[in-house]
Amino acid sequence: MVSGAGKCAAESAVASPNEKLKPMSKFDPWPSLPLNEWQDTYNTLHMWTQIIGKIRMTLSPPLNHWWHVTLYVNSLGLTTGPIPYPRGVFEIQLDFQNHALRISTSEGTGAHRPLQAESVAAFYSSITESLASLGITFKISLKPQEVPNAVPFDCDLANCSYDPEYAHRFWSILVSTSKVMEQFRARFIGKCSPVHFFWGSFDLACTRFSGRLAPPRKGAISGPAYSHEVCSAGFWPGAGIGAPAFYSYTVPSPAGLEKEPKWNPQLSEFILMYDDLRQADSPETALLEFFQSTYNAGATLGKWDRAALEL
């Protein structure tokens, strides 16, 4: 086993900066994603998305519930969407089709480089230099969020893996999940979040709001995030439970919710394992039913005004 800087050097040899990777030829909407087969790539991507997300957060106007920090699924991978800067707007994309980091500006300028096995420190240095070449400067906290034993981005040499196949599989699941979430979102006429990707917890989520205030929470992140009653549904690729899964929860959690089907007492929320969904005759139908049924349970027991909030 090679670790640390030695591991980075070994893996960087797999893809040189000048190598052009071909797009994946087949799109599987629900591919296999065993956590143990791509854990190193997962950890590295987690840090790369945190760097990109923090750039968006720093340069964008604040939005309620931290909505100004998220990334979005698109036809190539994950994107920041437009970020303001003095000369217009720019966008950063992680392209999991062609395996490239792409930066574009409203001035018609841009930069790109391959996504390859390299350390978080090297990635941070590269994206900083690329943005500077376009006249874009920023200052972010270099400490990762929501991870144990956080190592500053510019010092992280251990996380340095990139497996194109598993990055593509992960993105394929995000695409398929986001399509179902958009259907779920369309059924609600109350306040609802976009379908967006939180880089802190590394999950795709969509959140419905009852319209009522929730009991105050402490914490710079959880306080604003849960200032109002919510029912949130999402997907994360497995950290914490050892396998990818879909989730749903209601905050505050009403009495009796723990008696409903698919409730996980260890996590205190509803869980549908991804591998179980893949076995369904129609994964899309099964996933929409999971999102809807768990929302129904939370909203009914929580006495939401469903007649006013739903189509």
Question: What distance lies between the first and last C-alpha atoms, to the nearest angstrom?
Answer: 56 Å
> Which radius of gyration do the C-alpha atoms yield?
20 Å
Order of helices and strands: HHEEEEEEHHEEHEEEEHHH
Beta-strand residue percentage: 15-25%
**Contiguous runs where pLDDT drops below 50 for at least 5 residues:** 1-6, 9-25
Total of DSSP H or I helical runs spanning 4+ residues: 8
Describe what this molecule looks like in 3D.
- Helices cover 33% and strands 21% of the residues.
- The longest helix has 25 residues, at 35-59.
- With 311 residues, it is α+β, with helices and mostly antiparallel strands.
- The strands form 2 sheets. Strands 1, 2, 3, 4, 5 and 6 form a 6-stranded antiparallel sheet that branches.
- The protein is built from 8 helices and 12 strands.
- A hairpin with an 8-residue loop joins strand 9 and strand 10.
- The radius of gyration is 20 Å and the shape is globular.
- The N and C termini lie far apart (56 Å).
Structure described in brief:
This protein is α+β, with helices and mostly antiparallel strands and 311 residues long.
Keywords:
six-stranded antiparallel β-sheet; alpha+beta; disordered N terminus
List the helices and strands and how they pair.
Elements: H1 4-12, H2 35-59, E1 72-73, E2 77-79, E3 83-85, E4 88-95, E5 100-105, E6 110-114, H3 120-133, H4 164-186, E7 196-198, E8 203-213, H5 222-225, E9 228-236, E10 245-251, E11 263-264, E12 269-273, H6 274-278, H7 283-301, H8 306-309
Antiparallel strand pairs: 1-2, 2-4, 3-4, 4-5, 5-6, 7-8, 8-9, 9-10, 10-12, 11-12
